[in-house]
Amino acid sequence: MKTARTVEELRSVRGEGVVGLVPTMGALHAGHVSLFEAARAECDTVVASIFVNPAQFAPQEDFARYPREAKRDARIAEQAGVDILFAPTVGELYPPGYQTWVDVEELSGVLEGAHRPGHFRGVATVCLKLFNTVRPQRAYFGQKDAQQAAVLRRMVRDLNLDVELRVLPTVREPDGLALSSRNAYLSPQERERALALPRALQTRDAERARAALAAAGVETDYVDVLEDDGTRVLAAAVRIGSTRLIDNIPLEGETQ
After folding, report:
1. Of the listed 29, 32, 115, 119, which one is catalytic?
2. Is the pTM of this model over 0.85?
3. Sheet (strand 243-250) strand order
4. What element of type H or E holds 234?
5. What is the pLDDT of residues 46-75, one digit of tens each?
6. Is there a catalytic annotation at residue 29?
C-alpha cells in the first residue's frame, strides 16, 4: 500500500483502470472494512482517504477528541486490500485563504443538518475535493449516514459529476448497535443504554420510535422520516451521556 500526503503525491500514484474511493475520517472499524472489500471486489485500484474534516464540525463538537489512530488505521486499510492511502493535513485541503464551499441547500437543512448547521456544507465540500483529486469511477459510503448519502447523491447529480455512489448496508454489532467510531466514547453502562436506538428504529414508525426512546430515558435530537429521490428511511439522532449517535433503517415500500 502506498501512502500519499499531498494532492500532488496522490495524483502521481493514482493507478489505472477503474478507481474506487472510500472516504473516511479514520478510527476504522468493520463498517469501513466492508467498504474497502466491496471496492476491492469491483475496482482495479482502491483509494482510501483518512481526513478528520474540521469543516463538518461545529465549534462545540468533538473535533479535538475525535479518535486518531494513524498506524492502526494504515494496518487495517492495507490488510483490507487498499492500494493507496490518502492522508492529507488540514492545510493541504484548506490552505490559507480558502473560501470556496458546496452547499446542497434543502437536503442539508433538515434532520441532521438542522441540528448541525454547516455540517453538510463541510461534507459536500471535502467530498467534492476528494472526487476531483482522486477522480474515481466509484465512491463507497455506508447506509448508517443515510442523509449524508442523500446529500452527496444530489451534489453528484446537480454538478454533473462523473462518479457512481455505492451505498452499502449498515454494519452492526451482534446486539444491533450500528458500528461507529464514536462508540468508543461510551462507558459499558452507556453502551447498554445505546441499544435503545436500534430497538426503537425497529418499530419502523417515527411516533412509536420516539415513545420507545423516551421510555428508555434516551435524549433525542430527532426521530423522523427522510425522503429523497424515491428512498425513505427512519432516521434518528440521540445523546447517550456526552456521546451523540445516529442511526436509521430503510423504509422503502412501506407507508408511514
Report:
1. 32
2. yes
3. 219-228, 231-240, 243-250
4. strand 231-240
5. 999 999 999 999 999 999 999 999 999 999
6. no
